[in-house]
Amino acid sequence: MTDFQTLFYVGVEIDPNEIRPIEGRFLVASKQLLKSEWKRVKKGELTYRLTRIAAIFVIVFGLCSSAIYVGLIEIPGVKIQRAELASPDPSRSLELKDKAVINGLR
Fold first, then answer.
1. pTM of this prediction exceeds 0.85
2. What is the rounded distance in angstroms from the CA atom of residue 41 to the CA atom of residue 35?
3. How far apart are CA 106 and CA 80, in angstroms?
4. 19 to each of 25, 28, 31, 89, how far by Cα in Å?
């Protein structure tokens, strides 16, 4: 860049033959800079990468938890007991809610 600045001082005659070698060096340096910046941009900033990893973890955890709860996946030694909390008989409904709390479902 300094080569270009010295070449373009006011009052100095510009010769195209002097510009060509400076232009070539400038193009090589700019290609290297752009390539390294493109790799950095393509990879993403640290905050973006961490957020992406956290989002993937949350989604996978949610899907696995849902599959376990629904019963698509069974874990050996773990039994999920589901109780019906809504009952047409109001007196029985309270009994079922208490049972669910005792069993740890709430």
1. no
2. 10
3. 13
4. 10, 14, 18, 94
